[in-house]
Specification:
seven-stranded mixed beta sheet
């Protein structure tokens, strides 16, 4: 089992920056992809695999940067040039690989609010 805990959400003005963190614990040796999603629909924001390959939503490219520290089992999301439309609950997702099956583990979410 993998436990996931996010932190870093806050209220910020448009144009500002925030950094989200997500720490995984438990069966960390089997973690493959880590990522961030947002909103009720769990819209993809960004993901990163163990090798550092990243995927970004078009809406955040050039503004957000995802990174990962495998020694700390932690993933970060640096958010710059924030816009009001970035306002959402951000969820960390950690995939635990067991053979050919991926198990998804979610954090409780952290609120990001961008004021205009």
């Amino acid at each position: 089992q993998v436990q996931v805990v996010e932190s870093g959400g806050d209220l910020v003005q448009a144009g500002g920056s925030l950094r989200l963190s997500c720490a995984a614990s438990g069966s960390v040796s089997s973690i493959s992809v880590m990522g961030w999603y947002r909103g009720k629909e769990r819209e993809l924001v960004a993901t990163i695999n163990r090798s550092g390959t990243t995927i970004y939503a078009d809406s955040v490219k050039g503004r957000f940067t995802i990174s990962r520290d495998n020694t700390k089992n932690t993933v970060y999301l640096q958010m710059n040039s924030l816009k009001p439309e970035d306002t959402a609950v951000y969820y960390c997702n950690v995939r635990e690989r067991d053979g050919l099956v991926d198990y998804h583990h979610w954090g409780q979410g952290t609120q990001v609010t961008v004021s205009s």
